[in-house]
């Protein structure tokens, strides 16, 4: 009998890590004021207040539509993109790969702003269009546009999951299908798709989750018409009643959790048979690419079109904004050109500090989070225990909290738990919040990769006398390195642009770029915000390109 | 400060200060300051830093901090910028946990700032500069107004000519109705439900007579767009997406107008609400002396000159000259300026029932125009 008690230990710690903030929110939702306030009394009226507000139902409807729309757009496209990149002879894969991650570099608020500058009513692409073809047929502030933008910009999330899975799937089956005369499409749908189905299912659920807590894009693009989704509706309670109404925010978070519950069940159902799909066997095989034939250039053009929509359009808007004092159809660009926005950037000593902090948090912190996710993943990996399987449900809960709420709750926990108090407003507290918020994403990536390691390899190691640690070190971890690397990359990207989570945990000298950007932008300093956004994109993009060049390869 | 003096370390430091005082006294204490001010500065320098929580953006703060550093090289300013409502959350949470890090809290959310006084977070301190600033700008020696910021209208001169742009609320209301087709979707203002500052400014309008409500009805008629931040509004007015912005915070508007000649500022002639960024020194400050020295600097002639002429936040001290000062504004607009009174009545703005009643009236007025 192997010793399994360590699994219980890890499960318990994880549960505490998740349930402490969730518990605090439940408690807060039944109070009349902030939980730490002497004015607070117990009440259930908070739920009635929210349910009676027509604004809540509007926001709920918008959220569901947005979330469904996102899944419908992002999941098929992301899966297709992964197939094209990993499995086919699509031209230009080498340089397309880093570009795929570009939509993740920019803070969603800046991304949304980029769209306004490029295809908004005064946007420069709109002005060109108007000159050539007449009035534009789109409205950047409309709901269909919002769905399209969020859908297309989340293709990358799905891509990361599915491509990671694909890289571990041996290609001999596809090759057999191809030899037997299957077209690329038949191979993709009949062979590849079923093999990576668990990853697609997981990414679909996660994207739907992201849809529920989406803040930046709907906040900026829905601002002027007051169109709200649950996360922006919740934010309204920060000011609606004068003092921040935490109890009402807590109620909305609880509703988000309840609504996302069916999604969790759905995911469990879909993954019940996941073990069938362990695909990393003992035999080494070399990957063979499916030739696309005449589809080659069509696929290439489609990928470029997507990159144009999610990278070039918003990025060109932000870049243009960073070198002008103003924009729009009323001015000629040559009259308003300036490098001042970059000069101003150099004048702020804070910027340098925030870049350093961001890199530390994203790179080192991202790695530390990866270690946490890997530990939790190992604890529940092929675990016979009920406790660890309970984690399946728990780990999704933190994502039902929008970043700003998660940040506030982690701040409260650090503040009101005596042992943690000295660490409040430190990079460490920020790291804890980030790790919590992105737990479902990192963990799923890691644990699906673990799931694809053939059981027989681990069993073989056990039989020859290896303990759990040894099996993890010599078998599971090395074989799932794709998933681990992808999780690190994802953490790096998400941490480097995260902004809302850190607001309450910011202290002297631990500013991060994401938060700086948003506060500059909110403060009306769009000149510096856009030049900083461009620098931010270059720093992260350069980092990724360098890493790929130096041989840190996702497909190694 | 009481805690400080009774602790052993405090006593030791106080002794050290007394010994050091004669030496430092020869250093420049501003004129008119009490004789023992050198001791306060010495103590502040031993403390070494002052932690400021505020919502003024870094770019505006940079010149102030830089100049303060020149005046007091031994006192570092740790400036933490947080949005107004989040700032309040942070301060009240930290205070409830007995772990307040801020030595000074400085924010444009006047109502929430006064709530902190009410909650016992602010310390009483009679600044030696008190006599030099308007008497109404301080309440109970616990809360000090640092700036004098008019709330203005803004327009894009390529879309609306200077001759036709109205300069009163009543004028704007009737002009919008008369130009309904042209102005539909072209007007921007704060959403009072989603912006604390927006609510505060518009409820100050409502407190100054009845001119607001016909204007709100006109807003409804031209399908006005409602925003949560000044930055977005100014950006879109500058780009021509909107033509007119109502209730824009002065410093941002003037700064924008300076950079973009198409953006013009109108100071409403019927009355102009004036807001102030309010500062409190915290009761539980870990650097109490440094906080006081920083407050005195902000109110001093030197500090106010930077606040007005470099940070463009509009100096509140009458003896500072320049366009972005109370003197410059008063010379030009005189009696139409209506500064919001600083005192317990600020709390009216954050009574939930009053707010909900206001929103109902606001939404009814909007609907009446549609």
UniProtKB/TrEMBL annotation, chain A:
PROSITE patterns, A to Z: ABC_TM1 (PS50928)
- Indicate where this protein resides in the cell: Cell inner membrane; Cell membrane
User: Membrane topology per the record?
Assistant: Multi-pass membrane protein
User: Which CDD domains does the UniProt record give?
Assistant: TM_PBP2 (cd06261)
Task: Identify this protein by name.
Answer: Spermidine/putrescine ABC transporter permease
The organism's place on the tree of life at top rank = Bacteria
| InterPro entries xrefs | MetI-like, MetI-like_sf
Q: A Pfam family in this protein? A: BPD_transp_1
GO BP, sorted A to Z: transmembrane transport
Q: Give TM segment ranges.
A: 12-30, 64-86, 98-120, 140-162, 195-221, 245-266, 297-320, 355-379, 391-417, 423-446, 486-508, 528-552
Predominant place of localization: membrane
Look up and give the organism this protein is from. Paenirhodobacter enshiensis
Keywords assigned by UniProt, alphabetized: Cell inner membrane, Cell membrane, Membrane, Transmembrane, Transmembrane helix, Transport
Domain ABC transmembrane type-1: from-to ranges:
60-267, 355-547
* Family named by the database record: Belongs to the binding-protein-dependent transport system permease family.
Recorded GO cellular component terms are:
plasma membrane
Task: Please verify whether the record's keywords include Lyase.
Answer: no
Q: Is the keyword ATP-binding assigned to this protein?
A: no
């Amino acid at each position: 009998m192997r010793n399994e008690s360590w699994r219980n230990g890890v499960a318990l710690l994880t549960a505490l890590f998740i349930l402490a903030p969730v518990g605090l929110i439940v408690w807060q939702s039944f109070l009349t004021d902030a939980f730490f306030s002497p004015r607070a009394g117990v009440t259930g009226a908070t739920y009635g207040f929210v349910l009676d507000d027509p604004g809540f139902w509007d926001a709920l409807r918008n959220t569901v539509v947005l979330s469904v729309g996102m899944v419908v757009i992002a999941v098929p496209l992301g899966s297709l993109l992964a197939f094209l990149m990993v499995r086919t002879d699509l031209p230009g894969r080498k340089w397309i790969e880093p570009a795929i991650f570009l939509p993740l570099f920019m803070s969603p608020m800046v991304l949304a702003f980029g769209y306004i500058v490029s295809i908004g009513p005064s946007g420069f692409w709109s002005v060109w269009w108007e000159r050539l073809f007449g009035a534009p047929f789109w409205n950047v502030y409309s709901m269909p546009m919002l769905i399209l933008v969020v859908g297309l910009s989340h293709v990358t999330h799905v891509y990361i999951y599915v491509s990671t899975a694909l890289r571990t799937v041996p290609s001999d089956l596809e090759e057999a299908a191809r030899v037997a005369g299957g077209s690329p499409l038949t191979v993709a749908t009949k062979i590849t798709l079923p093999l990576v189905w668990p990853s697609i299912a997981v990414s679909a659920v996660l994207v739907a989750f992201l849809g529920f807590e989406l803040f930046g894009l709907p906040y900026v693009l829905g601002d002027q018409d007051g169109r709200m989704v649950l996360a922006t509706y919740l934010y309204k309670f920060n000011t609606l009643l004068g003092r921040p109404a935490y109890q009402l925010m807590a109620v909305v978070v609880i509703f988000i959790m309840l609504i996302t519950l069916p999604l969790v069940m759905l995911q469990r159902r879909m993954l019940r048979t996941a073990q069938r799909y362990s695909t990393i066997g003992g035999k080494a095989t070399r990957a063979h690419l499916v030739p696309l034939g005449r589809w080659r250039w069509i696929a290439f053009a489609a990928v470029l079109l997507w990159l144009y929509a999610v990278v070039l359009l918003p990025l060109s808007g932000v870049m243009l904004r960073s070198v002008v004092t103003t924009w729009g159809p009323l001015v000629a660009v040559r009259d308003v050109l300036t490098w001042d926005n970059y000069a101003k950037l150099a004048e702020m000593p804070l910027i340098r500090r925030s870049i350093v902090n961001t890199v530390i948090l994203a790179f080192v912190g991202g790695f530390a989070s990866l270690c946490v996710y890997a530990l939790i993943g190992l604890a529940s990996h092929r675990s016979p225990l009920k406790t660890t399987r309970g984690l399946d449900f728990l780990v999704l809960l933190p994502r039902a909290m929008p970043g700003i709420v998660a940040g506030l709750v982690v701040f409260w926990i650090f503040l009101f738990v005596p042992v943690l108090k000295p660490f409040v407003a430190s990079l460490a507290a920020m790291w804890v919040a980030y790790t919590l918020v992105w737990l479902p994403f990192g963990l799923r990536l890691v644990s699906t990769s673990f799931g694809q390691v053939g059981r027989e390899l681990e069993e073989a190691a056990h039989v020859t006398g290896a303990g759990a640690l040894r099996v993890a070190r010599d078998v599971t971890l090395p074989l799932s390195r794709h998933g681990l690397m992808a999780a690190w990359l994802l953490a790096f990207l998400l941490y480097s642009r995260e902004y809302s989570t850190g607001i309450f945990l910011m202290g002297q000298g631990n500013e991060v770029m994401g938060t700086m950007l948003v506060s500059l932008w909110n403060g009306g300093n769009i000149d510096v915000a856009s030049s900083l956004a461009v620098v931010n994109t270059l720093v992260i993009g350069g980092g990724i390109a360098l890493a790929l060049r130096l041989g840190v390869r996702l497909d190694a | 400060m009481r805690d400080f003096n009774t602790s052993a370390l405090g006593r030791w430091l106080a002794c050290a200060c007394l010994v050091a005082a004669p030496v430092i006294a020869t250093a420049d204490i501003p004129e008119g300051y009490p004789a023992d001010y050198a001791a306060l500065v010495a103590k502040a320098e031993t403390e070494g830093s002052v932690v400021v929580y505020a919502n003024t953006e870094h770019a505006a703060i940079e010149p102030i901090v830089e100049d303060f550093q020149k005046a007091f090289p031994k006192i570092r300013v740790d400036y933490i910028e947080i949005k107004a409502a989040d700032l309040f959350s942070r301060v009240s949470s930290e205070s409830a946990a007995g772990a307040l890090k801020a030595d000074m809290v400085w924010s444009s959310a006047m109502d929430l700032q006064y709530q902190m006084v009410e909650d016992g977070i602010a310390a009483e301190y009679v600044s030696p500069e008190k006599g030099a600033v308007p008497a109404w700008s301080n309440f109970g020696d616990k809360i000090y107004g640092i700036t004098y910021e008019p709330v203005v209208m803004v327009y894009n001169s390529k879309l609306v000519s200077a001759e036709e742009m109205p300069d009163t609320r009543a004028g704007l209301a009737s002009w919008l109705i008369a130009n309904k087709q042209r102005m539909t979707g072209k007007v921007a203002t704060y959403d009072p439900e989603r912006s604390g500052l927006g609510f505060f400014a518009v409820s100050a309008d409502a407190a100054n007579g009845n001119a607001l409500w016909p204007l709100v009805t006109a807003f409804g008629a031209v399908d006005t767009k409602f925003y949560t931040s000044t930055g977005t509004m100014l950006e879109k007015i500058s780009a021509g997406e909107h033509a007119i912005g109502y209730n824009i915070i002065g410093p941002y508007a003037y700064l924008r107008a300076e950079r973009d000649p198409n953006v013009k500022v109108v100071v409403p002639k019927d009355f102009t609400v004036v807001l102030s960024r309010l500062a409190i020194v915290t009761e539980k400050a870990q650097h109490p002396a440094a906080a006081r020295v920083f407050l005195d600097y902000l109110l001093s002639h030197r500090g106010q000159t930077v606040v007005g002429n470099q940070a463009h936040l509009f100096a509140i001290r009458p003896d500072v000259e320049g366009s972005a000062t109370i003197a410059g504004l008063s010379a030009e607009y005189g009696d139409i300026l209506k500064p919001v009174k600083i005192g317990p009545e600020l709390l009216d703005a954050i009574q939930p029932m009053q707010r909900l009643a206001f929103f109902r009236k606001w939404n009814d007025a909007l609907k009446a125009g549609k």
